[in-house]
């Protein structure tokens, strides 16, 4: 069974960058698509980007286009989310999620990490 653990969150100033990591175990990562979600206080969880097993990416959030980039390293069983030009409204808990395919927005993923907090503040 696929297990996911996020890391790399923290406090960053507006305009700064972070790289979040999603470490996979329990199964071969190259079989799975991995998506990144976030949930800000008082808001619904938002799906942002997904990368499938072949490396093709899907962006589901206009708010992060051009600023957030997803990538994967199957040899290391890792998926990354590069966050650039961060804004205070990017403050949220960020989650990675896995399934056999990238899902249509609103369709649940089977496997989830525990989340990592990102705070963008001066």
Notes on the structure:
The protein is mainly beta. It is built from no helices and eleven strands. The protein has strands at residues 3-7, 10-12, 18-25, 33-39, 46-51, 57-59, 68-73, 78-83, 92-99, 111-112, 116-120. Strands 2, 4, 5, 6, 9, 10 and 11 form a seven-stranded mixed sheet that branches. It has a four-stranded antiparallel sheet with strand order 1-3-8-7, with no helix packed on it. β5 (46-51) and β6 form a beta hairpin. The chain starts with a strand and ends with a strand. The relative contact order is 0.32. The mean pLDDT is 95.
Spell out the key features of this protein.
122 residues; mainly beta; 7-stranded mixed sheet; 48% strand
Overall pLDDT metric = 95
Principal-axes shape call: globular
- % residues in beta strands: over 45%
Task: Give the end-to-end Cα distance, rounded to a whole number of Å.
Answer: 40 Å
């Amino acid at each position: 069974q696929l297990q996911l653990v996020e890391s790399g969150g923290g406090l960053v100033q507006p305009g700064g960058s972070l790289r979040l990591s999603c470490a996979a175990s329990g199964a071969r990562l190259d079989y799975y698509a991995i998506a990144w979600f976030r949930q800000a206080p008082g808001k619904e969880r938002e799906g942002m980007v997904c990368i499938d097993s072949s490396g093709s990416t899907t962006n589901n959030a206009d708010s992060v286009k051009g600023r957030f980039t997803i990538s994967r390293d199957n040899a290391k069983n890792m998926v990354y989310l590069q966050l650039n030009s961060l804004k205070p409204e990017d403050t949220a808990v960020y989650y990675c999620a896995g399934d056999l395919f990238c899902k249509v927005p609103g369709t649940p993923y089977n496997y989830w990490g525990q989340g990592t907090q990102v705070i963008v503040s001066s």
